Amino acid sequence: MNSNEAKTVADFLIADFQNEMQTTLRVLAAVPTHHLDYRPDPKSKTALGLVRHLALEDEWLLNCIANGAFTPPPDDSDTCGIMSPADGISRYQQVVPAALARVSAMSGEELTVVIDLFGMIQAPGINFLAMTTKHSVHHRGQLSTYLRAMGGTVPGIYGPSADTQ
Fold first, then answer.
1. Which of 40, 51, 107, 123 gets the highest tally of CB atoms within 10 A of its CB?
2. Can you name the residues that pair with 123 across neighbouring β-strands?
3. CA atoms of 54 and 136, how far apart (whole Å)
């Protein structure tokens, strides 16, 4: 992919991510606060763990793309300061748009530079931007499946849910 194509694709992916951010915030806002330790299986993250993961890793992935290098992922333990869905929403709103703006400001040439993800994947930054959206949607989907089991309601995601009709 040449630099002009990379910039065109990036503009599309950034607009797509901006739309997905609004849905992510709706799902975070729907998480009941009384059962944040809920997890459907011992191998699964808790609801609070997924709130933290979305709030911290969306920013981390975007900033790593903008930096042209991956750093160790953020610590999503209790020390991260996110102890509720409201904390996750606040953090997400503070940092993710700024990180996305950094990626949006990248040139096509910068977006085509190959980045190494800890020796597991080597790909141009534009590929990681596409992966970032998929990563966010994947974990948001996990969290949305927890909502009813936690006593909450599912917001509309790609149209109305049974709870929003």
1. 51
2. 115
3. 6
108-138 residues labelled b (16+ CB within 10 A) or e (exposed): bebbbbebeeeeeeeebbbbbbbbbbebbbe
- How many Å apart are CA 156 and CA 164, to the nearest integer? 6
Q: Which two tokens stand for residue 6?
A: 């990379």
What residue type is assigned to position 89 of the chain? Answer: I
Backbone phi, then psi, for 91, in 5-degree steps? Answer: -60, -45
Q: What does the alpha-carbon distance between residue 147 and residue 15 come to, in Å, rounded to a whole number?
A: 27
Distance (Å, whole) CA 39 – CA 98: 31
pLDDT tens for 25-69 read 999 999 999 999 999 999 999 999 999 999 999 999 999 999 999
DSSP 157: S
- Give the integer Cα–Cα distance in Å for 162 and 1: 42
**Widest pairwise Cα distance in the chain:** 50
Q: What is the pTM of this model?
A: 0.94
- CA 66 remoteness from chain centre: 15
